[in-house]
Specification:
This protein is α+β, with helices and mostly antiparallel strands. It contains 16 helices and 16 strands. The protein has a 5-stranded mixed β-sheet with strand order 1-2-12-9-3. It is globular and about 65 Å long. The protein starts with 15 loop residues before the first helix and ends in a 14-residue tail after the last strand.
Length: 419
Amino acid sequence: MTQTDRPIVDFNHHSPELHHRRGEEWAALRKCPVAYNPRYGGFWVVSGYDEVAQVSRDGETFSSKYQPEPEDGVEYLGITGVPRIEGIPPIGIAEVEGPVHQALRRVLNPYLLPLAVERLEEFTRQVTTWFLDQKIESGAMDLTLDLANPVPAVLTMRLIGLDCDTWEHYGDLFHATVAYRPGVPEYDRAIANVPAMLTGLLAEADARRREPREDLLTDLVNLRVEGDRTLTNEEITSVLWNLVGGGLDTTTSLTSLSLYYLDEHPELRDELTRRPELMATATEEFLRYFSVNETLTRTVTRDVELGGQELKRGDYVLISWLSANHDEAAFDRPEDVILDRTPNRHLAFGVGPHRCIGMHMARSMFQILLGEVLRRIPDYRIDRGATRFYAGNPELTGVVRMPATFTPGPVAGPPERPF
């Protein structure tokens, strides 16, 4: 197949205007689920459920790794988008393949498997209660900045073994790098602080080498890969960037967007409040509907056919989880939130070798956060005029701020901070 034979689509996925109508755009693109976009040097756009699942499952053909220098004539892009934004370091476990990827998953698994997550649930409830208690007597709070952002941030610090008091430092930085686009003052200030943050993470790693603890960071610096070598400083900081960024913003975004949607649809909020047994299926449905990790990129490692198109080694592929999870061929009434939807084979966490390793933690935090809001401030009302969403980020969606009011309630926990 020659380049002129390719089905061509021409759109700027970084455009804020397109971002606002992306549901309609992805629906139109699914009519040709694998098409070529000549912008940004050219890349394939994969929008159908079956095709996205095929790419995600086949990590050997569609590589996630980031290799900025050409390797055998192919420059591997990684997962962070077309084009890759300058200043973003390698994304740890998500942008490596082979034995190193397998070793990293082995060291992370004990901290993120269901039993480990279950052991953290009481702490998660204590932290959620404490942050709600700070505002509940006033009858007003920002559901994103005062709750949905800090709780996952504190839990992520605890998970890794970092000082929980530093949650705001990391939370603000990562929130700004995904909520805003390059050139916006908030983004530029945040990205300028990345080198100092990475230096600080390396200092924590060095401290674990000198004085090991029983935490994930100690296990990470002691990990042996590819025979008997330890991870380089760059590899350690990239894994920590992945863990901190993945832990902080995705659950924040899912929680905020779900609360906003329930405020727009009071009949669903009332049903979920009356029937908390629906929380498990509702969680999967909100994961499907919002797909907060909207897209990622892969590099083709060998010539392959996908969706009837011939892709060549070295081609870049952008897949849309959001589009796949709204594919009419895979889901009945995909534009509706159905709290008890079953089955629900969504791809919000991916599939295959790079399926999100933090999915159990994300589900647990989300269910506790949403459940406590519905239990303690069930009549919350969001100020839609003051709410601000991410603008033009094709990879992640979320909420910058979301003020709300509610009937004041009593403090439920001890005054001492639980972290």
